[in-house]
Amino acid sequence: MLSPAGCGSPAPAPPGPARFGQTAAPTASAGFPATAYPAPMATMPPEPTQTTTPAPELIPGSTQTYQALEQLIPSGTIKDYLTQKVGATAFGGKVFSAYQVMGTEQSGQVTRLYLWALVQEYYLDGQTLKDGTGSSLPVVLFIRQQAGVYQIFDYKDAGEGYGNLTVNFPAWILPMIQLPADQYNLRVSLLADENRLAAEAFYGIK
After folding, report:
1. CA–CA distance, 44 with 104 (Å, rounded to integer)
2. How far apart (Å, rounded) are the C-alpha atoms in residues 206 and 9?
3. Which of 31, 32, 158, 185 would staple 9 via disulfide (CB 3.0–4.6 Å)?
4. Coil, strand or helix: which one is 12?
5. Domain spans, the chain
6. How far, CA to CA in Å, does 104 sit from each of 99, 140, 199?
7. What is the pTM (predicted TM-score) of this model?
8. By the 8 A CB rule, do 176 and 114 touch?
9. Whether pLDDT at 25 is above 60
10. How far is CA 35 from CA 70, 88, 116, 140, in A?
């Protein structure tokens, strides 16, 4: 998983979320402030208290707040969610997910986590690992606390041809989505490498 960054690579960026098949392009916590309670009076026994882990203060575009959020939503949980909701199999393979956090935002009790996700199927053809169906696209995950646990309860993406881009993504995150070609290609390449390493480990390929 990557923090926001990017630099050069040769291929041009696609005009919208790339959804591709076998011929796809090659594939790329912070603690919380302790709550200080006043010491009990000497003549009074301390009363039991119930505390819950507070949600981090999330600031748009802040890497620190994304790291704080990871204390609540582990990376594996995010990958599993993307695999289930975004992934697809067309060759009988297994889907793997990698992502780059672009920013976070909080509105009331709901946290929005903006990602660039690469969700890719891999399968074996004999002893050769091959790409199956995949998607490379921006995603926003909706997170809230339920029964004391932070859970992903919904997601949205940019839609075909980025038709829902300005509906589902705020203006401040658009520069992280619409990267120059070299930065876009580097991001996808690194995410593809992460997925392929996971696939090689799963299939026992050295």
Report:
1. 44
2. 26
3. 185
4. coil
5. 18-23+56-203
6. 14, 9, 29
7. 0.68
8. yes
9. no
10. 20, 44, 34, 31
